[in-house]
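SEVERITY: medium
COMPONENT: batch folding queue
REPORTER: lab tech (J.R.)

DESCRIPTION
The queue accepted two submissions in a row. Attaching both inputs and their returned structure tokens so the on-call engineer can compare them side by side.

ATTACHMENT 1
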Amino acid sequence: MDDTLSVLARVDAEKLKTFAETLIPDLGEIEVLQSQSGLVMLPMRDTAKGVAFHLGEVLMSEAHIRKGEVQGYGMRRGHDLEASMAMALVDLAMATGVRRADCKAFCDAQAEALQQADDDVLRRVEATRVNMETF
């Protein structure tokens, strides 16, 4: 399963923008289909009853671009249209084969950094766990 979009949605915005900007000359002319911010519902699942519900709304930025018949997409949390556009540029570059190796290397490096950060958080959480006996 390719989790490239999941990685791009979480990567540091400035790193993403810097990398995506290097792709623009190679991509050439693109058409912006959509660039907007808005609220989306955050779905959750009640683990006790197994029922889905909406926890609330989350502000998201979305970009949808096209080059010929190929499309690129980006959606990120918050109101950062440049970051969602950068995500869409990387997605479009990979879909069209433009600097695919560079894009893959960037995504792989960022996935590794995100995994390390997640592991660090889990270690800190685990260190606070208290085991209690039940009588």
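ATTACHMENT 2
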Amino acid sequence: MSSLPPLTLVTGGAASGKSDFAESLARASSRPRFYVATAQAFDEEMEAKIEAHKLTRDEDGWTTFEEPLDLAGALPELPEGGVALLDCVTMWLSNLMLQNADLESEAEKLMSALEQLPYPLVIVTNEVGQGVVPDNALARRFRQAQGQLNRMIAARADLVVQVTVGLPLVLKGTLPEGFQ
């Protein structure tokens, strides 16, 4: 299996299969695998979902790092020589909004961190621009910020893949050998 490019962005709608596809890209590497999880449990259902994901990743040989807010600080601290999966920047952005963080500043810090990573990184994000215009200001602000963040990451990414109904569509770059 060919190696991953330095930065890969995997996007798609909710439950599209994007996380599974992103995991398969990282899993195909012979490098140690690191999973950067951004979700926070605000209710019992989410807590159970996070715990189930942790167990599955542990059994599959991932080392998990939970970082809901400071991606720019956490990503450079991951061990060199591995491959990292960040799932997902949509949850990260939501977490920042809940903290009333400066979204533009946080996005710029993330972009700066992405340019200096010594390992391949696969980022998962939700595509939020294909639905209806949200009916409230907060949702419209989130949609706008997520769309901007997705465009910023895609501009820097070597490979951008959209996943729909579990099927990958390459938007930029070339999939590693074996994924054609």
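NOTES FROM REPORTER
Strands lie at 7-12, 33-37, 62-66, 83-87, 121-126, 159-164, 167-172.
No errors were logged for either attachment.
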